[in-house]
Amino acid sequence: MALVKSGWLWRQSSILRRWKRNWFVLYLDGSLVYYHDETQRDMDGRIHIKYSCRDVRIGRECKDVQPPEGRSRDCLLTVVLRDGSKTTLCAESEDDAVAWKMAVLEAKSTPVRLSTVRPQGTGNKAPGATGKELGRDWMPPLMAGPGVTHVIVREDPYRISGDQMALGLLAGAATGAALGSFMWMPCWF
Length: 189
Known about the structure:
Layout: E1 3-12, E2 19-27, E3 31-35, E4 43-48, H1 49-52, E5 53-58, E6 76-81, E7 86-90, H2 94-109, E8 112-117, E9 149-154, H3 162-179, H4 185-188
Parallel strand pairs: 8-9
Antiparallel strand pairs: 1-2, 1-7, 2-3, 3-4, 5-6, 6-7
């Protein structure tokens, strides 16, 4: 998915109201995902901005919230959700808080149409076609109206799935064992 904005933000926990620093990523589809760190391996949570966000407040609009120690109230950012809950964040600076608010509001209001295009040989058939395989560069017709952001997601033709890799390793190990090769010896111990 296309990335809109990413960076460090402080997030206030909902129960103990403690501040924790997380790496936030806002995607074009409206997903605001936060992770433990920049590696983006361990996801802490996700907010679906397009469906859940009702309002975004910054600075003095964030009532009854104390910023983290050493931070200004002007750096605060509150995402008000449709269910009545709030996610309170704190940016590194006032400008960064304004930039995050603008990015969240943009992601909230931008309609997105997703299309997936698979490389040739992976079952990419034309709608209504009778068994004809399409070429790598075929794209479905874009039927959304003006002002809609079109995101085309293409599968990587060189991606190897775990099943294919496991079968390849197993076949290589069997071949090596059959030929008496010592190259596969470390795999057995």
